[in-house]
Amino acid sequence: MQLFDTYYKEIYNLLEYDDYPNLLKRIIDLTLDTEDLVYYKKAADLLDWLELNQNNIDEINVRFKVILEDLYNVLSKKEIKKRKYLLEVNELVKGYPNSAFALGPISFTISEGEIIGLVGENGNGKTTLLRSLCGELAITGGSVKYIFERENSYDLRTKLIYIPQRTKDWHGSLLSNLQFTASSYGILGEENEHLVQLVIARMGLRGYRHLNWKSLSSGYKMRFELARMLLRKPHLLLIDEPLANLDILAQQVVLDDFRNIAKSLFRPLGVVLSSQQLYEVEKTSDRVIFLKQGKPQSVTNTGSDASLHMEDDAELIIEFESDWGQEPIREALTSIGLLNLQLKGGTYIAIFPSVVSQEQFLQLIIDKHISLTYFRNISNSTRRFFL
Ligand SMILES: Nc1ncnc2c1ncn2[C@@H]1O[C@H](COP(=O)(O)OP(=O)(O)OP(=O)(O)O)[C@@H](O)[C@H]1O
């Protein structure tokens, strides 16, 4: 059970950093992992207590320790789920009548616990791909194979959830809507009450639970959709532009949430998310698919093994910002073999032959005293396809 011990230790360590908001989220994740009403109730009681005792840090620390140890005892005995393939997409093509646009052919797979980022400029087929994957659009070629048990198309819709960019409005309070969602999935009585409270807190919505649709900002509406999704316990989540209406901090929080929820050891979830926020998505996704005019330009691995997939002869591409003008920059960089220099929106993009290293570039910056306010090596980033 070493895997769980490492996973648990990472969460427990948050206590040492007094990172209580994140710790609470992770405690809720672990509680949901138990799939046991006894633990749902304990965590829901903790939420009620916290609401009245927010400043009692010493007691918070004690209570968090107790619940964490409790969760360790139950989860360390639970079987870790072996991750399975969820979806196999083979040479998928989707065209529209009276439109020159065609998506694909595109092939890829997705498994439990995996996050795929879908990037591309406006109108390049991200939404078309997501809608084709969930069966909302009839594809014109190839196949989409769902590799999980399902009884009928209604059951498919509970196991595979598609959240579009614009979601429908709803009546009543956020809390009553989520209670209704849970009840329509057979979660009733005490379990409904506690589970909904946990999911609300998990998505940072506790202070908003009595508000209605009109009173929520678009970022919170999206969190509501994510809470609803969690209650439905899907295998696969397809989500269109979840970061669109969020400020940068909220984007990072939501991406962390996706990662933690997708990578659960006991209830792993496959996620395909589309976004224009390239770097944020690259940091979170295991793979990035970049679409240009409907065609996949690359499937880039962005996880820790990314370097394994870097081509040996790939050029070095550096994105940077400096208050130096183009001419002196060009002159300086030429000395280490600059192939091309572009200036877009105040950001330089310099391309060097593969033999030039990032260290050589940085050394030159130091030696020539070039001012540098921002720097990123994008040689292995999907960003290079936007050039
Ligand atoms: N129902 C439709 N009939 C005809 N063409 C369509 C239809 N829906 C989408 N398209 C076209 O398909 C192309 C891809 O659109 P899609 O919405 O998939 O792109 P996207 O990458 O999601 O864009 P955005 O980032 O703007 O949401 C566009 O050229 C669009 O005009």
Automatic annotation (TrEMBL):
<dbReference type="InterPro" id="IPR003593">
    <property type="entry name" value="AAA+_ATPase"/>
</dbReference>
<keyword id="KW-0067">ATP-binding</keyword>
<dbReference type="Pfam" id="PF00005">
    <property type="entry name" value="ABC_tran"/>
</dbReference>
<dbReference type="InterPro" id="IPR027417">
    <property type="entry name" value="P-loop_NTPase"/>
</dbReference>
<keyword id="KW-0536">Nodulation</keyword>
<dbReference type="GO" id="GO:0005524">
    <property type="term" value="F:ATP binding"/>
</dbReference>
<dbReference type="InterPro" id="IPR050763">
    <property type="entry name" value="ABC_transporter_ATP-binding"/>
</dbReference>
<protein>
    <submittedName>
        <fullName>ABC-2 type transport system ATP-binding protein</fullName>
    </submittedName>
</protein>
<dbReference type="InterPro" id="IPR003439">
    <property type="entry name" value="ABC_transporter-like_ATP-bd"/>
</dbReference>
<keyword id="KW-0547">Nucleotide-binding</keyword>
<keyword id="KW-0813">Transport</keyword>
<dbReference type="GO" id="GO:0016887">
    <property type="term" value="F:ATP hydrolysis activity"/>
</dbReference>
<comment type="similarity">
    <text>Belongs to the ABC transporter superfamily.</text>
</comment>
<feature type="domain" description="ABC transporter">
    <location>
        <begin position="87"/>
        <end position="318"/>
    </location>
</feature>
